[in-house]
Each structure stands twice: as C-alpha cells, then as structure tokens.
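Quick start: read one record
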Amino acid sequence: MNKTELVEPIAKHADISKAAATRALDSTITAIRTTLKKGGTVSLVGFGSFAVTKRPARKGRNPRTGEEIKIKSAKVPKFRPGKALKDALN
C-alpha cells in the first residue's frame, strides 16, 4: 500500500475529504520526522514506537573489487511494533 492508497481508507473511516486526509497524513509524518530528528521517540499505544538508533562505523568490502572500505556511522530510524499490532497479525 502506498501513500495514495492509504489516504482512501483514512478519508472513509474519518468521514473527511481525501484532501483533508492527505493533509492529516502529511502532518503526522512531519511530526514523527521532526521528533525523531530532535532525538526523541514517538509512541502510539497499541500500534508501536518510533525511535532513532545509532549504527557504529564499520568496515565493509567493495563487491566489485574486494577492496576494504570504511562505512560511516549513521543514525537510523527504528520501528518497534506494539503488542496490539502483533496480536492483530497473529
């Protein structure tokens, strides 16, 4: 499901227009992104939690040449599903 396909059920269940649903989804994504960028976490009870973890620098290999390369450390987003979401899938 992509963003456009997600807007349809949001609009239907919330009884709002697709334009309003798109704005609501965009606002939600922006709020999550902003919070994570500041180093915070976002917890949606029953759904899951978004957080940022730091991946340390490491050595890798160029698959073409076999040459060893350095891979920089990076901050990566992480999603941890909540119990209700896990239960809904099983």
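The mean pLDDT is 95.
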